[in-house]
């Protein structure tokens, strides 16, 4: 579904942050992107989402080169949903207003139908739909931003650190919701994470980045069992 090939990217006229990255993600799988702070994980996700055009290399969705397609067209034309790392809910709007924002380009009837279906699926959020988003806990906000992406009916879901700042209990709740989305819908999910070992627990495959390149990749269960994974991830550099 997503094919990233030898992508180089950076900001303004600054140096390359991504130094030739290749990645593949298919429908029905969770691919997690791991690596130390500043290695380029969010930059890679922003490239796939269309916030940043690659300087070299290609990004394809279902075989079509979409490297130059801007973010709003990625959402409508290619079914890409993006949940950014920060500022992902509008605190002064209600929960239901936040969710409906994700589907403002859809006809009203379709939007309401999807809204009702999601409220049935996420009853704890439904119970708080009239509250201001500022009154939600961190975990509830993460679920809210997920649901806002889901109401657009994406085929591809890009998640930047969905477990950031959560307690272990809430983290597992959010990860369970993400695994459930994969299992129920067959969506293609690319998830950046700091909680590497927990993320590998729900992911199918993983890429570990260091300094804008792929240092390791493989099946999640193989990486979980690989002793160099722990060393590499926690150490943040590659030997040899
Ligand atoms: N908007 C921007 N303008 C200029 N440089 C940026 C911008 N965003 C990120 N960078 C730089 O790009 C590099 C990679 O940042 P990126 O956000 O992709 O890292 P990351 O792997 O997501 O880190 P973290 O784990 O801390 O979220 C960093 O050196 C960062 O300073
Ligand atoms: Mg980041």
UniProtKB/TrEMBL annotation:
Keywords: Amino-acid transport, ATP-binding, Nucleotide-binding, Transport
Biological source species: Azospirillum aestuarii
Pfam family, one: ABC_tran
Family (UniProt): Belongs to the ABC transporter superfamily.
Any GO molecular function: ATP binding
Gene3D superfamilies given in the database record: P-loop containing nucleotide triphosphate hydrolases
KW Signal (keyword) present: no
ABC transporter domain: residues covered: 2-236
Name used for this protein in its record: ABC transporter ATP-binding protein
Record field: transmembrane: none
Highest taxon of source: Bacteria
Lineage, top ranks: Bacteria, Pseudomonadati, Pseudomonadota, Alphaproteobacteria, Rhodospirillales
